[in-house]
């Protein structure tokens, strides 16, 4: 059972366009939602993360929108560039005295930005 | 800035052999996580350690074991390797349960 569902599976965007990737989660105990970028054969690299006490977080061209009531969050990449072509994973975890922060990943989205 | 170091980067083994993967966390990080990523799949959590004690366990086969040593490096031991164990194995480290930083991974191929 996939606890974090991600869509779309693949995405093609023109250079300069906006890339939007969506995720939905089931467990309301999750309280940390990061996005990772992964290039082929490389380790995931943290892009941006959000906690449920805010509805939006922006860092440069990357923005996370978070909807706690809908249990959904999304990544927006503004002014998409060919160098953004990679696989993007959303993830969720929960902290606390009895939890360890293990990441539960979505299925991933392969983004291709065309020049 | 120092990153997570994993060795070896590539490993080729035969079925039923054993493999040992090593992870050196970012200095002062006290928590290590291991993930397995199959081709075209998302990373799956295997096991984690906090202050040298196992803190959580995921879908890790009984053939696998891991530990964290006094210098905080961690090793994942895999025995009786199967073809299905071929994957990328990532180690991530964090300070307590904060942001996880991933290493470059070890690509294990079982023939």
Can you walk through the features of this model?
The complex is a heterodimer of chains A (115) and B (111). Helix content of chain A is 0%, strand content 51%. Chain A has 115 residues and is mainly β. The radius of gyration of chain A is 14 Å and the shape is globular. Chain A starts with a strand and ends with a strand. The mean pLDDT of chain A is 93. The mean pLDDT of chain B is 94. Chain B has strands at residues 5-7, 10-13, 19-24, 31-37, 44-50, 53-57, 64-68, 74-78, 87-94, 101-102, 106-110. Chain B has 111 residues and is an all-beta fold. Chain B is built from no helices and eleven strands. In chain B, a hairpin with a 6-residue loop joins strand 4 (31-37) and strand 5.
Quick rundown:
Chain A is mainly β and 115 residues long.
Descriptive key words:
heterodimer, A: 115 residues, mainly beta, six-stranded mixed beta sheet, five-stranded antiparallel beta sheet, 0% helix, globular, B: 111 residues, four-stranded antiparallel beta sheet
Explain the layout of strands and helices.
The complex is a heterodimer of chains A (115) and B (111).
Chain A: E1 4-7, E2 10-14, E3 19-25, E4 33-38, E5 45-50, E6 56-59, E7 62-67, E8 72-77, E9 86-92, E10 104-105, E11 109-114
Parallel strand pairs in A: 2-11
Antiparallel strand pairs in A: 1-3, 3-8, 4-5, 4-9, 6-7, 7-8, 9-10, 9-11
Chain B: E1 5-7, E2 10-13, E3 19-24, E4 31-37, E5 44-50, E6 53-57, E7 64-68, E8 74-78, E9 87-94, E10 101-102, E11 106-110
Parallel strand pairs in B: 2-11
Antiparallel strand pairs in B: 1-3, 3-8, 4-5, 4-9, 5-6, 7-8, 9-10, 9-11
Radius of gyration of chain A: 14 Å
Number of helices of chain B: 0
- Give unreliable regions of chain A as ranges: none
Largest sheet of chain B: 7 strands, mixed
Roughly what percent helix of chain B? under 10%
> How many helices of chain A?
0
Provide the gyration radius of chain B in Å. Answer: 13 Å
Tell the overall outline of chain A.
globular
- Structural class based on helices, strands and sheet pairing of chain B: mainly beta
Helix content, binned percent of chain A: under 10%
Structural class of chain A: mainly beta
- Overall mean pLDDT of chain A stands at 93
Terminal-residue CA separation of chain A: 37 Å
* Beta-strand percent range of chain A: over 45%
């Amino acid at each position: 059972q996939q606890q974090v569902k991600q869509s779309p599976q693949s995405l093609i965007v023109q250079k300069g366009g906006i890339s939007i990737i969506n995720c939905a989660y089931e467990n309301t105990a999750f309280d940390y939602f990061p996005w990772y970028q992964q290039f082929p054969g490389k380790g995931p690299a943290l892009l941006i993360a959000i906690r449920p006490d805010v509805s939006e977080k922006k860092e440069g061209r990357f923005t996370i929108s978070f909807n706690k009531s809908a249990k959904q969050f999304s990544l927006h990449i503004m002014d998409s560039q060919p160098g953004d072509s990679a696989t993007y994973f959303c993830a969720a975890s929960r902290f606390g005295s009895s939890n360890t922060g293990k990441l539960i990943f979505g299925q991933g989205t392969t983004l291709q930005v065309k020049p | 800035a120092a990153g997570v170091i994993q060795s070896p980067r590539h490993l080729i083994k035969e079925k039923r052999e054993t493999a040992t993967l090593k992870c050196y966390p970012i200095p002062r990080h006290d928590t290590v996580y291991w993930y397995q990523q199959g081709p075209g799949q998302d990373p799956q959590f295997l096991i984690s350690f906090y202050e040298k004690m196992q803190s959580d366990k995921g879908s890790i086969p009984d053939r696998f074991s891991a530990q964290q040593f006094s210098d905080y490096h961690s090793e994942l031991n895999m025995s009786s390797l199967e073809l299905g164990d071929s994957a990328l194995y990532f180690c991530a480290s964090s300070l307590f349960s904060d942001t996880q930083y991933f290493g470059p991974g070890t690509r294990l191929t079982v023939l």
